[in-house]
Amino acid sequence: MHCSVYPRYSTIQDPYGNNAETFDVTLNIFDEEQSVYHIDMSSLEEMEPSVDTLGPGEWPAWTPGNSGEYTTELIVTLDGDHCPANDTCRKYVNALYAHDVGVVELTNLEGHEWGNNQVNPYPEGTEFTCVATVENFGANAEDSVYVDLDIYDLSKDPDSVIFIDKRLLVNLDWRGNEGENPYVADVTFPVWSTPSEDGFRVEYRIELAGDDYPENDECTREINIGITEEPEKVPFSLDAVTISPDRRSVTISYSVPRLTDLSLRLYDVSGKLVKVLKQGRHPAGTHTLTWNGLDDAGRKVAQGVYLVRMEAGDWSDVKKVVIY
Fold first, then answer.
1. Is the pLDDT of residue 27 over 80?
2. Does residue 92 contact residue 120 with C-beta atoms inside 8 Å?
3. Comparing C-alpha atoms, which of 230, 233, 238, 305 is closest to residue 278?
4. What is the rounded CA–CA span in Å between residue 19 and residue 46?
5. Residues 135 and 183 in one domain
6. In the sheet that 127-136 helps form, which strands lie side by side, from edge to edge?
7. How far apart are CA 257 and CA 260, in angstroms?
8. What percent of the chain has pLDDT over 70?
9. Which residues form the FlgD/Vpr Ig-like domain (predicted)?
């Protein structure tokens, strides 16, 4: 562990009092959650109006347990103090591990959203140029950091790796150096295209010999996962089939709970296929479809009774519509 400030010396001044005083000085150290990390106390006896320093003899050595920012707080306690406003002083300590590189952000050059933020899944062939933002949190410059990218197909059981790439990052400086090499760098990987509309997991991983804090070495993002694994919010249903007031079109309302293969077809009463209305992968949600009254050959259908059949896996339903 490397600490940029080491709170072992504390200067105490009595510029206002005219009497020798005996008082306590308390040292508190807080972590970033404001939890008390370290407490110590020292006493000064019969201090004359002057300046004094509490050095290593009074304060034992303190070593941070983890990296991060700490607050050191000195409090003077004097009975009958006439000016308590100057009794407290605070300084900040930045503690760094010797070697610590982590992934802080995952983006893609195309600007695609990760996870389940998109309404519809990205279609097959969607390109992703993945970028990992890597930061050196340690107290030393690093010259051999590997950044791995693995992409998994979540439709397989178990998940299978379908894309692997590794990049070498050199000359990653530490944050305390004012040299030309930055301590933050973007690592860009080759373009990868989605092979289907299924869900995928994108994993980034840091490889650094002697890394003191491996907890920040991995980061994960997902593609289409909000579509393929979204809980069922609506059931499969063929909700309504209605003809427009001008009798020129028919509106079909239906719902699907998840990304699925869907078939919507129109038959006459003899069972003959008249029109394929929808066929293929379909996103979750409630949808409407308008049919213009033409068959698959582009001809206007005759007046009469027709059947709309919806199928999704083992589920199916039929509704009637009268064309007149």
1. no
2. no
3. 238
4. 9
5. yes
6. 101-108, 127-136, 184-193
7. 8
8. 80
9. 260-312
Residue with tokens 């509704």, as numbered in its chain: 319
pLDDT at 228: 41
pLDDT at 5 over 50: no
Report the 3 state secondary structure along 17-70: CCCCEEEEEEEEEECCCCCEEEEEEEEEEEECCCEEEECCCCCCCCCCCCCEEE
pLDDT number for residue 322: 86
Rounded to an integer, what is the distance from CA 252 to the centroid of its chain? Answer: 39
The 10 Å CB-count burial string (b at 16+, else e) for 240-250 is ebebeeeeeeb
pLDDT tens track for 66-120? 777 778 887 888 887 777 777 788 887 777 888 999 998 889 999 998 875 556 7
Q: Are residues 214 and 113 in the same domain?
A: yes
* Positive or negative: CA dihedral 191, 192, 197, 199: negative
Specify whether the CB–CB gap between 218 and 103 falls below 8 A: yes
Judge if 120 and 207 occupy the same domain.
yes
- Chain centre distance of CA 24: 47
**For residue 23, pLDDT beyond 90:** no
| Alpha-carbon gap, residue 178 to 276, rounded angstroms | 67
Question: Total domain count for the chain?
Answer: 3
Which residues, including other chains, have CB under 8 Å from residue 286's CB and lie 6 or more apart? 234, 239, 253, 254, 255
Q: What is the pLDDT of residue 82?
A: 76
Parent domain of 250: 237-323
Mean pLDDT of the chain: 81
Of 48, 68, 96, the position where a domain reaches its end is 96
Q: Are residues 218 and 121 in the same domain?
A: yes
